[in-house]
Amino acid sequence: MVEVDWVREHADWIMQAVMPDGAIAKHVDHEIVRPYEAHFAAWGLVRATAVTEDQSYIKAAWNWLDWYYRHMDEVGFVTDYDLKDGQLVSTQDMDSTDSYAAMFLVAYNAARKVSNDTDRTNYLRP
């Protein structure tokens, strides 16, 4: 059995890495965004919603998925980002193309199953 307080403690830590635009930074300092790792954070927030019923977690996960969707290039790739002069700037690099997309789908599918937000589901489906 999952201890709700433990889940909430860890989800709240992830929430400290959530940025105002929906990005999930690698650390709570908000200096770098690595989409592959952020997908795991979003997935964890989805699971935390299922355990705690705290809707702020699923909202942050959907906001991350939306951020990722908005940052896809014309072929569906998203690069890593670093904070420069207060703005997230693309590094023009990524460590893979397949796992970023795959983890997006894993996080999206988890959010879809836990959420009743059909507007978000339909918006991100393409």
Descriptive notes:
There is one protein chain. The chain is mainly alpha-helical and 126 residues long. The protein has 5 helices and 3 strands; from the N terminus they run H-E-H-H-E-E-H-H. The chain has a 3-stranded antiparallel β-sheet. A hairpin with a 2-residue loop joins strand 2 and strand 3. The termini are far apart. The model has no long low-confidence stretch (mean pLDDT 92).
Layout of SSEs?
Blueprint: H1 4-15, E1 32-33, H2 35-52, H3 55-70, E2 81-84, E3 87-90, H4 98-114, H5 118-124
Antiparallel strand pairs: 1-2, 2-3
Helix pairs in contact: 1-2, 2-3, 2-4, 3-4
Summarize the structure.
The protein is mostly helical and 126 residues long.
Task: Give the structural class.
Answer: mainly alpha
List the quaternary state of the chains: single chain
In the sheet with the most strands, the strands line up as 1-2-3
Evaluate the radius of gyration. Answer: 14 Å
Distance between the termini: 36 Å
Q: What series of H and E elements makes up the topology?
A: HEHHEEHH
Number of helices, counting only DSSP H or I runs of 4 residues or more = 5
What would you call the shape?
globular
- Tell how many strands the DSSP assignment holds: 3
- What characterizes the major β-sheet? 3 strands, antiparallel
Mean pLDDT: 92
Q: Uncertain regions: pLDDT < 50 for 5+ in a row?
A: none
The level of helicity is 55-70%
> What share of the residues does DSSP label as strand, in percent?
5-15%
